[in-house]
Amino acid sequence: MTTQQAHTQQAQTPVLTFPTGFVWGAATSAYQIEGAVDQDGRGRSIWDGFVRQPGRVLNGEHADVAIDHYNRYRDDVKVMAELGLTAYRFSVSWPRVQPDGVGEINAAGLDFYKRLTDELLANGVDPWVTLYHWDLPQAIEDAGGWPARDTSKRFADYAAAVHAELSDRVTNFSTVNEPWCSAFLGYASGEHAPGRREPAASIRAAHHLNLAHGLSVQAMRAQSPDTVIGGCVNLYAISPETDSEADLDAARRIDGMQNRFFLDALLKGEYPADVIEDLAPVTDTSFVQDGDMATIAQPLDMLMVNYYSRFTVSGRPGGAASAAAAPTDSGSPWVGSEHVSFVNGGRPVTAMGWEIDDAGLLEILSRVARDYPSIPMVISENGAAFDDVLTVEDSIHDQERQAYIEAHLRICHEAVAQGIPLRGYFAWSLMDNFEWAWGYGKRFGLIYVDYETQRRIPKDSALWYAETITRGGLRAPAE
Ligand code: FCB
Question: In 3-state terms, what secondary structure has residue 349?
């Protein structure tokens, strides 16, 4: 084929076009990328101390420097502009803005986010702010952390302060990233900071994270009714291993804890009765006070869905270590589900060992559209870690990551075609970064980071994503 013929063929290949205004983004979070833990008056977060405890993070790695985004944000925004991103989702570090989690705002810390948002806007990239991505101020943890009710109020005050300063230039805010992880990895399995293993406390934490969401939405709306606000949940497709009663019940339980506990709270103002019953041996729910559920279920402009994988579960005893368990010694996040086991669903896996199931995303989106009608959605995280190889020519041929993202974007296209109100997609992650208990071993970025030199190198998936954005859609599969 001549080059001319190739071009003609390309031009003729049908494109699965996304609607105008569809958001093409990438996401990161503060602790995973910023570094600069001692700069400009930042306070301590629960992760600063946690990473120093032996055995918590693979190879004892920490994020004191991470990928130094705090000092390199201008160059990083250039990279985003080159990719053609229309939006960038990042989180604000609570202890950077309010070192002890209460009281006075640290203007120097908040300034960083003003500079960053200005830089994004100047480059045509819409800033999407997440207010909490797991870096609780240590002082708030010392006062009880998420299991303590007061933390919800503290969070709402902090959120209002950030919103007051940024809402002149930021339209899209979201509250708590993945409350499931904060509550159950932080306080039940202990694989994330603060590393506590207190099942009853983890349920209180989950409720207070939901309450923090609701209170902060109220506070931001009171300041500016035009702000677009989302809640962010990590949803999994879940299958029973067989149709046996025990397996079906295991799937109900895990779906209840993972998906419905948060969806029903945020979007219906209730906790699912079956989940409360499952949890009864662990804790009662006397911590849910009158009016809490109405506070939690504030009207939302969008649901932000993080989607990675499917769990296949069985009611066979065998332990409920999560299919996504950390590499370090930890308990189970599946409070009250000790007899559930996670089994191999037989799908290909990423470097995290997470099963790849793009069809599961359609299942999730259809289900939310059916059970919680009229809530617009965005995919706020989706992506994959693979063992990238930097070639001598400075390339990274990450075909598997590209295939993963392409397959999930095809599902997004299908969802939109079916009339599901899906408004955008954020790849996780813009750049390789500190992957929590896995340290730097797992690379999720579209952009490769050489951790020695902090050099950024676009992977093939990034180049492909840029082309997709320019085209406004995916190439239809070859006939
Ligand atoms: C999500 C987190 C994000 C990152 C990805 C891989 O659960 O929100 O920070 O760790 O998983």
Answer: strand
Q: What is the pLDDT of residues 376-409, one digit of tens each?
A: 999 999 999 999 999 999 999 999 999 999 999 9
Name the CA radius of gyration of the chain, rounded: 21
- Tokens representing 267 are 């979007």
For residue 9, tell me if it sits in a domain: no
Report how far ligand 1's centroid is from the alpha carbon of 47 (Å).
Answer: 15
Residue 226: count other Cβ atoms within 10 Å of its Cβ: 7
The count of domains in the chain is: 1
List, for residues 199-223, the tens digit of each pLDDT value: 999 999 999 999 999 999 999 999 9
> For residue 351, is it within any domain?
yes
Specify which residues 127 forms β-bridges with. Answer: 88
Rounded Cα distance between 380 and 408, Å, is: 13
pLDDT above 90 for 13: no
Catalytic residue IDs = 178, 381
Looking from the CA of residue 444, the nearest atom of ligand 1 is 6
The ligand 1 site (C-beta within 6 Å) comprises: 29, 32, 177-178, 181, 234, 306, 381, 428, 435-436, 444
Q: What is the pLDDT of residues 105-122, one digit of tens each?
A: 999 999 999 999 999 999
CA 408 – CA 406 distance, rounded (Å):
5
Global model pTM greater than 0.70: yes
Q: What is the pLDDT of residue 477?
A: 80
Rounded to whole angstroms, the Cα distance separating 110 from 98 reads 9
* DSSP symbols for 1-38: --HHHHHHHHHHS-EEEPPTT-EEEEE--HHHH---TT
Q: In whole angstroms, what is the distance from residue 137 CA to residue 95 CA?
A: 5
The verdict on residue 11 lying in a domain is no
Residue 118 belongs to domain with CATH number: 3.20.20.80
Q: What residue type is assigned to position 469 of the chain? A: I
